[in-house]
Amino acid sequence: MNTLEIKGDWNILKGKMKQKWSALTDDDLKYSEGQTDELIGRIQKRTGETREAIQKSVDEFRKSCCA
C-alpha cells in the first residue's frame, strides 16, 4: 500500500468519524502515526463515550472502508 492509498483511506475514515461524532473538528482528527491514544482521547473528550466504544467504532469503520 502506498502513501496515497493510506491518505485516501484516512480521509474516508475521518469522514465516517465526523458522521458518527459530529462534535469533532478537523483539528481533533489530525493524526500522526503513533498518536492513536491521543486521537482516541480527543474523541472521548468531545463525545463522552468510553475508550472501548470508540475503539470498537473505529475498528468497524476501518474494516468497512479500508479492507
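(ticket continues) Second input and output from the same batch:
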Amino acid sequence: MADFILAAAFGGKKPDFAWLEQFGFSAEDGAHSYTERIAGGQLDLRVSVRADGTVRAAVRDVLTGEPYILHTVPGASGPFVGQVRADYEHVLKRIAAECFERDVFKSPCSRIVIGYVRERFGSELEYLWEKQFPGNAIWRRADNRKWYGIMFSVSRRTFGMDSDEKTEVINVRTAPETLPLIVNGTTHFPGYHMNKRHWLSVLLDGSVPAQDIFPLIDASYALAAKR
C-alpha cells in the first residue's frame, strides 16, 4: 500500500500513545495503527504512528485492495476526489486534536518553565496564531484574560548577536522602573515585539537558570492582575 509521511497536521506535536489506544489505535509491527472507512465506505484510510512520532497514512480501495492516491495530487479534481480529500483531512485532524499534544518548545529550560507555570498558575500555553506563527504561544490569567507570558523562537541576530541560530525566548511583564535594572544586552533584553517599557525578553537557552526566571514570571502574573 502506498503511504505518505505526514507533517502539516502533526508538525510541532508528539503522540500520546495512551490517547491513541483510547481513540482506537492498536499496537502492531512496531507502530500504532488505525483504520477507518471513508468516501461512503469505498476506501480504507490506514494511519500508523511510529515510536519516534512519525505519522504515515495510506488509502486503498476496499474491494480491490489497490492504493488510491488521487487525493494527494494537487491538480486532481471532481466530486469523488473532493470527498476523499475532505474525509482524509477530517480523520487526520481528529487524530491530531485528540491523540497528540504540542511539542514546540524543546530546550530543557523551556520545558522546566512550562512545567513551573502549569504547576504554579494552572495555565497552559495557548497557540493563538496557528497558521501564521505556529511556534508562538501565550499564557494569560484566567480571571481577566490578560497576557502575562509569551514564548517564541527567533534568530539570535534579533538581539544583536552574530548568529542566525534560533533560540527560544520568553517575554514577561516588568515594571518600568525595574526593567532597566534587569536588561543586560546578553540574556535579558527589552521586550521583543512588545512595549519595551513594560515587557522583558529572556533567553531560554540555558544561559539563565530556570529558577532565576520563576520570580520574573511571578511578577508578570501579578502585574497582569485586575486594577
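Agent notes: The first strand starts at residue 4 and ends at 6. The chain is about 25% helix and 30% strand. Closing as not reproducible unless the customer responds.
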